[in-house]
Every structure is written in structure tokens, then in C-alpha cells.
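Inputs:
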Amino acid sequence: MPELPEVETVRRGLEPAMAGARLTAIDQRRPGLRFPFPERFAERLIGRRIEGLRRRAKYLIADLDGPELLVMHLGMSGSFRIERAKGPDVPALGAKPKNPSHDHVVLELSSGARVIYNDPRRFGFMQLIPRNGFSAHPLFKNIGIEPLCEAFDGAALARLFAGRMAPLKPVLLDQSLIAGLGNIYVCEALHRAGLSPRRPAASLVCKNGRPGERATSLARAIREVLEEAVAAGGSSLRDHRQADGALGYFQHCFRVYGRENEFCMRCGGKVRRITQSGRATFYCGGCQR
DNA sequence: AGTTGCACCTGGCTGC
DNA sequence: TGCAGCCAGGTGCAAC
């Protein structure tokens, strides 16, 4: 489900309830999700103050006042909602889950909020990792550049693409190169840049190693589509919602994703659906070269 | 080393 | 109405 814009939207929704609050109780309702929960998970969390909530790639990271960080990943179908347990200082509302039996973890906070993690497919997970040197941790050591950071531009793309003959689509999905892109936003960014998902990544690099116009255009398209999606509160496919229950609306802005056989709004060509690395790719055969 | 394909799960939709 | 089959936003690992 969630790509960078959805995770960032969740982060912003959770921050008011979580940042600065202390964990007062944990209800862990099953032994694990994609991976088993850490040993003594609740015990290691209770009493800790959450100093801040960050995002890296598609991970949410709660900075705790102890020696550990709480790392959360939403997988394909994970979502958080906030129910007010008590007290006047928690603004967020809650969206009723379709199936409360998929509420797997409940975090009670000193802010008065109750933060509930729901995940039907259980591809998400939660881990506790040492705060010191967390970027060397296996979860993070191979994560690529953040596409919304300043250093992300055509030159950065050219460095990543050099020598890679694989098609653009799977290369852009590779989290060890660029962090946070998923199937939707890769399709959308390639359409905006007018580039075929089948084009070899290295073809965007000039002989002298310079980025070239296509790489610059693609970097701009990636940044643009992600920024617009974050501003729209992400995309709401199936049951994905923001932490306060509101629906993101970027899905109404898709130009190719999920639009097989519809007309391209730029050139009038037909949107095609192909499979690359086992995943659906949507693109316009008319204007994506 | 770089890639591909599959496995992990449940639920929603389509077509018979 | 029921049911089989296919599809889904992600990622890690085995196999080529």
C-alpha cells in the first residue's frame, strides 16, 4: 500500500499524538506480523517517552528516550488510526476499521491517545533497534537516497544508473538506490518524464557520465509527483487512510496508474499495462519513449 | 554482481 | 448466491 507519500502522511498524522508522549501500555495481540515481534516487546516500550517521529524511505521511526528506536513498516496493507483514550489534548479522530480483528498492536500514550495498528495482510512489521549507529543496521544500511532531499537531481540519478542495463521501472523500485518509490509513483513519474519503463536505466547517462536532459527531467518528475502526493495526503486505494481517518485524494491525479485502455491525457494515446519483474506497469506507448 | 521469480498473507473484484 | 481465479501499494531470499 504505502509508498513514500502515504508513509509521510501517516507520520504527520501520528506526530501530534505521539511526539512528546510516553508509552503507558502496549497491547500486542499476536506473536508477530511479517516477522515475530521483538522479545519482551511491550516491556521494552512501556515507560519510554517518544521524542520524535521520523520517516526514512517507507519506514516510520519513533525516537525513544532509551537506547532503542521503534521502527515500523506498513507493508502492503498496514494502517494506523488514533482513538482518543482520554484528555483534551489529542486532536485526531479515528476511522472505524473494516475488520477490527486485524488490529494487531495498540499503543496507549500519556497524551491520552490510543494508537492502533491494523494490517489485514500482515506484511508490515515492528522492530526495536539500537539507537547508536542505526544507519548501519541491516534494515537501513542499504537504503538509497531520499528523493525529496536537496542532493537528489539528474546528476545523482546518472550516478545511480551508470552501467545498469535493467529497465528503468525495476531500477526505480530498487530501495537500495532510491528510497520510498513504489509501483504507483514510479509509473506516474515515468509518464511525467515521457520515458518508457522499458528503457535501460543507463540510457539516461551521457557518454561523459553527465546526467543528460532525460535524467534531469526524470529527477524533476519524481520530486514533483511525490511532493504533489504528499500535499494531497497520499493516495487512497482500497482502505488506505490517513491516521486521522481522512482519505488522501492523490489517486484522482493518476495519469497512467490503473488506467489501462484509457486515453493518455497528454497525447491521446492508449495507456497500456505490461508486467515487469512480476509487477504491473502502466504507461503510454504514445508519449513515453 | 545484477536480476528474476517466488513466498509471505488476506480481501476484494470479476466472471462463470 | 457461490465459488474459483486473479489481482493488490512491499520486501527478502533463493536461484539463475
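Residues 154-284 of chain A form a domain with the Helicase, Ruva Protein; domain 3 fold (CATH 1.10.8.50). Flag for discussion at group meeting.
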